[in-house]
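Colleagues,

For the teaching module next term, I've prepared a clean inverse folding example: a structure given as tokens, and then the sequence designed for it. I'd like students to try predicting residues themselves before seeing the answer, so please don't circulate the second half yet.
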């Protein structure tokens, strides 16, 4: 029987920063599945990190220059705080930590977060993009569109909790599709300025807490995330829509 090292704060920090190898990440996610309070805190940290990235973007739409400068100072402060905590732990455990560091280095741990962009998206994202294209096709045949939606009915039928949709969005169609781990939900939506997007939700078969990630796939853009045992994807072919920001706002309504 393999012994699993205890999950400590450093592991949670590395999880938020995307610096764990696959094996340790799975151990942390298993720990989070048994500790909802800690999982909620980790999700909040992921959300804060996402907001910092938005604030640091070189685009005036994300706020004033002073705001971006403050975000940079905050991000550096968080980084320095974590470095200080790490030094304290190294001083406490000495040679054992050094040995552990060598072992982690051998397996390629603590890689930069940008590497995540080269990792293929989960299979459910491909399903979400296919559902989006299907919804576009359905809307070209008006007699096939049924705009009837109640979140409580969806939850009762599929055990999927749907995010709260902004009041200025219009739901034009809701469909349930089969998937490997049970039914999935596809919701066709028009934004306030009549742009077409799709919200996809499915139970992927594994518990996880993942912040919003982005991928371009099959002539569409997808922002996807997971909370607990339900995964979500916001999909559109319109590159002018701030998809990641909209996905983050939807994710917040689930808490």
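(Answer key — instructors only)
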């Amino acid at each position: 029987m393999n012994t699993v090292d205890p999950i400590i704060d450093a592991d949670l920090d590395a999880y938020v920063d995307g610096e764990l190898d696959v094996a340790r990440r799975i151990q942390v996610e298993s720990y989070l599945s048994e500790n909802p309070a800690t999982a909620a805190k980790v999700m909040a940290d992921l959300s804060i990190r996402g907001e910092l990235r938005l604030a640091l973007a070189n685009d005036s739409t994300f706020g004033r220059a002073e705001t971006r400068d403050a975000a940079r100072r905050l991000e550096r402060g968080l980084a320095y705080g974590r470095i200080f905590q790490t030094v304290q732990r190294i001083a406490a455990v000495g040679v054992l930590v050094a040995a552990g560091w060598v072992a982690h280095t051998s397996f390629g741990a603590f890689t930069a977060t940008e590497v995540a962009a080269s990792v293929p998206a989960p299979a459910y994202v491909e399903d979400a993009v296919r559902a989006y294209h299907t919804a576009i096709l359905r809307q070209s045949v008006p007699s096939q569109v049924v705009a009837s939606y109640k979140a409580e009915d969806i939850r009762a039928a599929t055990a999927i909790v749907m995010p709260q949709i902004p009041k200025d969005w219009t739901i034009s169609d809701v469909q349930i599709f089969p998937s490997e781990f049970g039914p999935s939900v596809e919701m066709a939506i028009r934004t306030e300025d009549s742009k077409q997007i799709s919200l996809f939700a499915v139970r992927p078969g594994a518990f996880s807490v993942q912040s919003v990630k982005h991928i371009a796939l099959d002539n569409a853009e997808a922002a996807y995330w997971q909370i607990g045992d339900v995964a979500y994807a916001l999909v559109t072919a319109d590159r002018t829509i701030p998809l990641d920001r909209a996905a983050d706002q939807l994710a917040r309504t689930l808490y």
